[in-house]
Amino acid sequence: MTSNGTSPEALEADLARQREELAATVTQLQAKLDVKSRARGKAAEIKDHATTATGGPRPDLTIAAALAVVVVAGLVVWRRRR
Questions:
Q1: pTM above 0.85?
Q2: What is the largest CA-CA distance in the chain?
Q3: In whole angstroms, what is the distance from residue 38 CA to residue 46 CA?
Q4: 5: which DSSP letter?
Q5: pLDDT tens sequence across 9-58
Q6: What per-residue string of b and e applies to 20-50 under the rule 16 or more CB within 10 Å gives b?
Q7: How many other CB atoms sit within 10 Å of the CB of residue 51?
Q8: Of 6, 14, 51, 78, which sits 20 to 30 A from 71 (CA to CA)?
Q9: Residue 14 vs residues 3, 4, 7, 8, 77: alpha-carbon distances, Å
Q10: How many CB atoms lie under 10 A from the CB of residue 68?
Q11: End-to-end CA distance of the chain, in Å?
Q12: Residue 2 contacts by C-beta under 8 Å, 6 or more apart in sequence?
């Protein structure tokens, strides 16, 4: 037993636990700093959200995009005529 009341085995176990926690923290930081991997994941997520199960574009999003194009074109024409 050491002077502070802990055994060498307890100290070694505590050090091993702290090393494991540090390794997990470093792994998490590496994952956060891997911008290329995160961008690929986000692109895949957006693609999954914007397509149907068969891989085609979702009809509601296609209609919304077409409507947005019509509105923007209308605003451009309207501004040029004023």
A1: no
A2: 90
A3: 12
A4: S
A5: 999 999 999 999 999 999 999 999 999 999 999 999 998 888 888 888 89
A6: eeeeeeeeeeeeeeeeeeeeeeeeeeeeeee
A7: 13
A8: 51
A9: 17, 14, 11, 10, 72
A10: 10
A11: 90
A12: 8, 11
In the block, tokens 């959200």 appear at: 49
Residue 1 and residue 7 in contact, taking contact as beta carbons nearer than 8 Å? yes
Token match 């891997």: residue? 34
DSSP 20-80: HHHHHHHHHHHHHH-HHHHHHHHHHHHHHHHB-TTSSBPHHHHHHHHHHHHHHHHHHHHHH
Contact 58, 50 (CB under 8 A): yes
